[in-house]
């Protein structure tokens, strides 16, 4: 797999890793162990997934030493008050049972009141970011980044930050390629990681959808035949061949192994997937949270 050099730390981010959102409790530990023993160099989790302790168990049960594993986790919306950032980070770090976190992301730009009730509060992500910058000085956090920001939100952050986000993790697959937004990240010097590269096949997201899932898209299945690969391998390889890192989620042992095969695509075949015209964003919590995410990006909710 390719590795990507991050600014400003100079660390090499593995291009490929296991996503763990919606991984069922009792399954994710084994999925992490299988993935690591099969050569996955990176595990992605988040405080809100509620599975950090299990992910940590899977890491310890694998044969791979901690020094060879990249761990990414995320700050939840209810800990955006600057004084809450370090305690939230420490809680995640201890749940994972590790000395250092390789990459800590602000999961979303909006802040919420702590507790069960979903209530957006007026704390700017720039204030939260300053507290994340301070984490770098503890020596326990190697890199900081963002997830699910709009273009205007990234620009606001860049205008006020001392340390740039090393990574922006966002939804990306052939129905949401975000070509212009990805190009912007090259200008900004922010590496992009794609989540839901298989179009998040969770049935609740595609209910009543008339579009075929990306895994069944004809351009993708034709390329799978051409490369003697599976549609999932083509979708994952498309991200890597486009210079992005990628986080397919699976808790199915056979698929975890399947997804680990990188099939470098010829430029003309990358372009074929780039040109798929259908558009769909599968993951948008704007209505649930009461905050307009992705306001200036493709497929946002008005
Ligand atoms: P499962 O975890 O049951 O194996 P995404 O990473 O785009 O969010 O997609 C994750 C979804 O895709 C999960 O439902 C996962 O199911 C499924 N999935 C993962 N790998 C494959 C694969 N190789 N082929 C088909 N579906 C897959």
UniProtKB/TrEMBL annotation:
Q: Which GO molecular function annotations are given, in alphabetical order?
A: oxidoreductase activity
What positions does the domain NADP-dependent oxidoreductase occupy? 21-276
Binding-site residues for substrate, renumbered to this chain: 107
Q: Where is the active site?
A: 49 (proton donor)
Q: Which domain of life is it from?
A: Eukaryota
Site feature location: Lowers pKa of active site Tyr = 74
Protein name, per record: Putative aldehyde reductase
């Amino acid at each position: 797999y390719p590795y990507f050099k991050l600014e400003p730390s100079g660390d090499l981010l593995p291009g490929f890793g296991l996503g763990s959102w919606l991984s069922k409790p009792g399954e994710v530990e084994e999925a992490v162990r299988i993935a690591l023993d099969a050569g996955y160099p990176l595990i992605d989790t988040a405080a809100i997934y509620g599975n950090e302790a299990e992910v940590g168990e899977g890491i310890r049960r694998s044969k791979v030493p901690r020094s060879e594993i990249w761990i990414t986790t995320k700050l939840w919306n209810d800990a955006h008050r600057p004084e809450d950032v370090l305690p939230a980070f420490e809680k995640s770090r201890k749940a994972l049972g590790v000395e250092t976190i390789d990459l800590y992301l602000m999961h979303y730009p909006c802040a919420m009141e702590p507790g069960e009730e979903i209530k957006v509060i007026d704390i700017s992500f720039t204030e939260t970011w300053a507290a994340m910058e301070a984490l770098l000085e503890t020596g326990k956090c190697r890199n900081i980044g963002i997830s699910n920001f709009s273009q205007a939100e990234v620009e606001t952050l860049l205008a006020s930050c001392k340390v740039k986000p090393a990574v922006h993790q966002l939804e990306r697959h052939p129905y949401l390629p975000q070509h212009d937004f990805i190009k912007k990240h090259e200008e900004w010097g922010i590496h992009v990681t794609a989540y839901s590269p298989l179009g998040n096949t969770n049935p609740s997201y595609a209910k009543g959808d008339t579009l075929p899932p990306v895994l069944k898209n004809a351009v993708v299945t034709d390329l799978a035949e051409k490369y003697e690969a599976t549609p999932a391998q083509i979708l994952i390889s498309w991200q890597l061949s486009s210079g992005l890192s990628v986080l397919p989620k699976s808790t199915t042992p056979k698929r975890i192994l399947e997804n680990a095969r990188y099939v470098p695509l010829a430029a003309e075949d990358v372009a074929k997937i780039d040109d798929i015209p259908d558009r769909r964003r599968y993951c948008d919590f704007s209505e649930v949270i009461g905050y307009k995410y992705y306001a200036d990006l493709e497929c946002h909710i008005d």
